[in-house]
Design brief:
162 residues, mainly alpha, single chain, three-stranded antiparallel β-sheet
Length: 162
């Protein structure tokens, strides 16, 4: 009788565990890691916010074009690099050639495969899979240079406030 009760108890526990597992009652909430595609309904963006994003992108594009035409910005990647634009430009192509490191936006864009054609021709990988330019490892600016870049962006932005 005792063996029968033990088997019945074990079967009951198994059944309850199965039911709770299939119903996801005790499961942790789903977490979204960086890079995972979130469902659109999980975090909808209002039309007003979308309009502001579009306006900001257009303003950055105009500033980018002005900096390039004035010779103050030589990007090494396609697309917009907000921190480089807000800082008043930089010469990412010269930084790559000198091997002194690149700003965080350029670094990320290079790893994302967004290099301009003349830079892309010189890109490769080292034995550890790290990105190289003319067989030299591409690194990010030192922290002190990144801080100066952000300070410059802040000064340029503050000086244009009404």
């Amino acid at each position: 009788m005792r063996k029968c009760a033990s088997l019945l108890f074990a079967f009951s526990l198994l059944a309850v565990g199965y039911l709770l597992g299939t119903a996801n009652l005790l499961s942790p909430a789903a977490l979204w890691a960086q890079g995972d595609d979130k469902p659109a309904a999980a975090n909808p963006i209002s039309q007003d916010t979308l309009n502001k994003i579009a306006a900001a992108r257009n303003a950055l594009q105009e500033a980018h074009d002005a900096l390039v035409s004035e010779g103050l910005y030589k990007p090494a990647t396609k697309g917009l690099n907000p921190i480089a634009i807000l800082a008043g430009g930089l010469d990412a192509q010269a930084d790559l050639a000198a091997g002194v490191g690149v700003d965080p936006g350029t670094f990320a864009a290079l790893y994302a495969g967004l290099a301009i054609d003349e830079v892309d021709e010189q890109l490769g990988r080292d034995a550890e899979g790290r990105l190289t330019y003319k067989k030299r490892l591409i690194q990010m600016y030192p922290v002190s240079s990144i801080k100066k870049l952000y300070q410059a962006a802040n000064i340029v932005s503050e000086s244009n406030q009404p």
